[in-house]
Amino acid sequence: MYGYLWYTKNVISVWLFMVHYERWDFMFNNGNFSNKPLYKQIVDETKGLIAKGMLKENDKMPSVREFAKIKKVNISTIQKAYQQLENEKIITTIIGKGTFITNNFDNIKPNYKLIDTLIEDLVREAKVLGITKEELLKKISDMFEE
């Protein structure tokens, strides 16, 4: 009986961990190839998930070790990301309880200056390639639908 309870408890614990793990693995995509350091990518991903409403105030973040395992990165990478997010007051750590999303979302605003620059470059390239405005807008619209 004791062995069965231990087994059942551990199976449930493993299952709960896997559900939690899969949620974070799904939310934080490892397929982002960027020239940015990994910790900055994680910071940007976290801010993006908050901006999209996928992470909300008081949501608990994974532990540093758990997140490092999910992202398949070194623990120090996650520590550096968490430190930056704490410095920006986006997350807060409560000793003995964990790390949580705060309600300070002032730092999470779309970077329209960057978007404008990217759009200008895109339009310039499209003109060089002979792509019409309609073709470009259709392509962008199609990408939004994916």
TrEMBL record:
Signal peptide: none annotated. Residues 36-104 form the HTH gntR-type domain. Keywords: DNA-binding, Transcription, Transcription regulation. InterPro entries: Tscrpt_reg_HTH_GntR (IPR000524), WH-like_DNA-bd_sf (IPR036388), WH_DNA-bd_sf (IPR036390). Transmembrane segments: none annotated. One of its GO terms (molecular function) is DNA-binding transcription factor activity. CDD domains: WHTH_GntR (cd07377). This is Transcriptional regulator, GntR family. The lineage of its organism: Bacteria, Bacillati, Bacillota, Bacilli, Bacillales.
